[in-house]
Amino acid sequence: MSICIKDQIQNMNLVIGCTVGCPYCYARNNTRRYHIIDDFEKPQFFQGKLRMMEKKKPQNFLLTGMSDLSGWHEEWREEVFKKIAENPQHQFLFLTKRPDLLSFF
Fold first, then answer.
1. Residue 6: pLDDT above 90?
2. How many domains, the chain?
3. Which domain holds residue 88?
4. Hey, what long-range contacts does 18-27 have (CB within 8 A, 24 or more apart)?
5. Could you tell me the pTM of the whole model?
6. How far apart are CA 102 and CA 74, in angstroms?
7. From CA 22, how far away is CA 95, in angstroms rounded?
8. CB 93 within 8 A of CB 63
């Protein structure tokens, strides 16, 4: 029996947009193709998606499939990490290309 990792992870995309500017970025291309936000270089926070964390059944969530954690505004991170703390039944995955810009306490 084989298991595909994409079937095991719920993609939340709490923030869409990124300031890194990678020329090969699939997220920017998808955002343009599907007209998700007007300007990919100006990340937008979709606060309403935080409700997805309220599921009782444990899940794996990818929170940065269409953004980079290092580009999130501090208040967005605070709100997201508060919600994460309220839902310890889940596991959360983050991606960044600039970990040197992040610090956690």
1. no
2. 1
3. 5-101
4. 18/43, 18/66, 18/67, 18/68, 18/71, 19/43, 19/68, 19/71, 20/68, 20/71, 20/97, 20/98, 22/97, 27/65, 27/66, 27/67
5. 0.88
6. 10
7. 14
8. yes
